[in-house]
Amino acid sequence: AKDPVRVLVTGAAGQIGYALVPMIARGIMLGPDQPVILHMLDIPPAVESLNGVKMELQDAAFPLLKGIVATTDVAEACKDVNIAVMVGGFPRKEGMERKDVMSKNVSIYKAQASALEQYAAKDVKVLVVANPANTNALILKEFAPSIPEKNITCLTRLDHNRALGQIAERLEVPVSSVKNVIIWGNHSSSQYPDVNHAVVEGPDGEKSVRSTVSDDAWLNGEFIKVVQQRGAAIIKARKLSSALSAASSACDHIRDWVLGTPEGTFVSMGVYSDGSYNTPPGIIFSYPVICKNGDWSIVQGLSIDEFSREKLVATAAELVEEKEVAYSCISE
Ligand code: NAI
């Protein structure tokens, strides 16, 4: 039998946490033959609720779940973890300035970066979910210099999956027959959902999504807007932000990263920019990636038309600006 993998979920008493921990315990994230030990971190005001989640995990009798650490102590939470899913953060509240939210999250991610660096496994793989996801991941990277930068990522897979879902609905095909959409840039409404390389599997093989949809006005307008604004639409409908879809997409992100993407398929991940596609280096930017042997690499050589270029530039500019705001919070 395999040794258990230790998986940290921060903000585990929250909405996404509640949807995510049973998925991990069921093997959705790391596979049906991989035992896990769940580490759950939250803050003191949520401790009772956190213990309730722990009780439910025990009650569900998950065969793969070999242990549970539920704590408000960051060091204990990070001890020897192999995977860290960072869902905890400070939410934007009504009337708050963006900079104030940034400042709270910068201090949280700075502290948790140090704890991961000190206590986690040396090859820990980190996925930041909490918003602003790209910039929280960047702060984490800056303050955990001994963790390889390749091991620090943020979640844009939910946006990627949303784009697949919209295309599948439009074409009235199963979502599993659509692949290779791309989310470029920030996990925010400036993201660019790009269908120019996407394909749909049909009875006569693969065809491009653009030629199959054959409605450029929809693809260049409504489609992009729906994906960019989907988070807000969920909040409006549920009065709560996306949780089951965020949890499921976080599992997709880690599963593909650890176990590899299928041949011929790429997915979107927020990773530390190396300047690929003329994007600014030094930010966490979402790119198309393939994963193999536990490593991701950016898919190279895709054509970028003028329409796409403008959108890449805009989302990159927003990330550069977020980085400046975040850095101004550090120095304060
Ligand atoms: P939530 O408010 O239900 O849960 C957040 C939890 O984090 C709470 O239990 C809170 O006590 C905890 N927390 C706060 N500060 C913490 C700290 N310093 N250490 C550990 N835990 C801490 O929020 P929800 O709905 O679960 O969302 C979590 C985050 O994920 C939010 O920032 C949200 O904006 C983001 N999100 C990101 C998505 C993505 O695709 N990247 C999609 C959906 C949500």
TrEMBL record:
Annotated ranges, domain Lactate/malate dehydrogenase C-terminal: 156-325
Family classification: Belongs to the LDH/MDH superfamily. MDH type 2 family.
EC number: 1.1.1.37
InterPro entries documented for this protein: L-lactate/malate_DH, Lactate/malate_DH_C, Lactate/malate_DH_N, Lactate_DH/Glyco_Ohase_4_C, Malate_DH_AS, Malate_DH_NAD-dep_euk, Malate_DH_type2, NAD(P)-bd_dom_sf
UniProt xrefs under Gene3D superfamilies: Lactate dehydrogenase/glycoside hydrolase, family 4, C-terminal, NAD(P)-binding Rossmann-like Domain
Classification via Pfam families: Ldh_1_C, Ldh_1_N
Lactate/malate dehydrogenase N-terminal domain sequence ranges: 5-152
Alphabetized UniProt keyword annotations: NAD, Oxidoreductase, Tricarboxylic acid cycle
Species in which this protein is naturally found: Sphagnum troendelagicum
Annotated PANTHER family: MALATE DEHYDROGENASE
Catalytic reaction annotation: (S)-malate + NAD(+) = oxaloacetate + NADH + H(+)
This protein's name: Malate dehydrogenase
UniProt keyword NAD present: yes
EC supergroup of this enzyme: oxidoreductase
